[in-house]
Amino acid sequence: MYTAFAQVYDQLMDDFDYPKWAEYYLELISRAGIYPETLVDAGCGTGSMALEFARRSIAVTAADLSEEMLEAAAEKFRKAGLPARLICQDMCALLLPKPVDAVTCVCDGVNYLITPRRLRAFFQAAWRALKPGGALAFDFSSRHKLEEEIGDAFFGEEREEVAYLWENRLDRDKHLVAMDITFFLREGDGRYRRFRERHVQRAHTPQEILPLLEEAGFGEIWVFGDQTFESPKPEEKRIHVVAKKG
To answer: Sorted alphabetically, which CDD domains does this protein's record hold (predicted)?
Structure first.
């Protein structure tokens, strides 16, 4: 996953308001009484969120399992004139030289952890990566969104430089959505190169997530709706969680 996709990810996310998203996440973390000086962005992708944190004078480490994504992140930091701290690691096995104030994981990273074992491993790794009193903040697409809105849907878009066909298949019993995405990327000679990736996400619920956070050692836990500070509504598309290390 996220190999060839890294070449077109930013083009397809060009309408995403990363500065607003970063401000929201810093506000989330402040709910745990943390104003981070050090932060790890797990599953950082092409580094857009990590870069926004760095622009706010936070010492950020950007972690991702995809070398292609990290290459794009490094270039982004270089152009911004900011130091890049990039590590190629599975977020379920984070290993840092010293603990940090906060760990974030945004844009569905937790949905890719499709088994309790993987969820448990990430929460435990995040707990170990944090200073005492530090905070983990993450989001996940809700069960309503993945199962009722996009579970068996088909999407497509054509742009000047890239086009894609996106087909989802829902396994409602296992709460899994398999996403088959075919991209057509325009080359310099005008021809299009075709490549395909498969992604699988699980539709978690807060009721499944919270016991695993508590098991990992987190104390106070807050759950909010999409970019709000209110409890999630039944048809919420995205859910945000903040958990404080005791």
So the answer is: AdoMet_MTases
Helix (H, G, I), strand (E, B) or coil at 20: helix
Task: Give the model's pLDDT for residue 5.
Answer: 65
Query: What does the pLDDT look like over 161-190, one tens digit per residue?
Result: 889 999 999 999 999 999 999 999 888 888
From CA 43, how far away is CA 63, in angstroms rounded? 6
Cβ 206 vs Cβ 221: under 8 Å? no
Rounded to the nearest 5 degrees, what angle is found at the Cα of 116, between the Cα atoms of 114 and 122?
85
3-state secondary structure of 228: coil
**What are the b/e assignments for 86-117, b being 16+ CB within 10 Å?**
bbebbbbebebeebbbbbbbbbbbbbbbbeee
Rg (CA), the chain: 18
* Residue 9 · residue 75 · CB < 8 Å: no
The answer to whether 101 touches 34, Cβ cutoff 8 Å, is yes
DSSP β-ladder status, 130-141 and 100-105: parallel
Cα–Cα distances (Å) from 143 to 168, 191, 242, in that order, read 14, 39, 19
Among 214, 78, 210, 203, which residue's Cα sits nearest to residue 152? 203
The whole-angstrom separation of Cα 90 and Cα 167 is: 26
Higher pLDDT residue, 133 or 7? 133
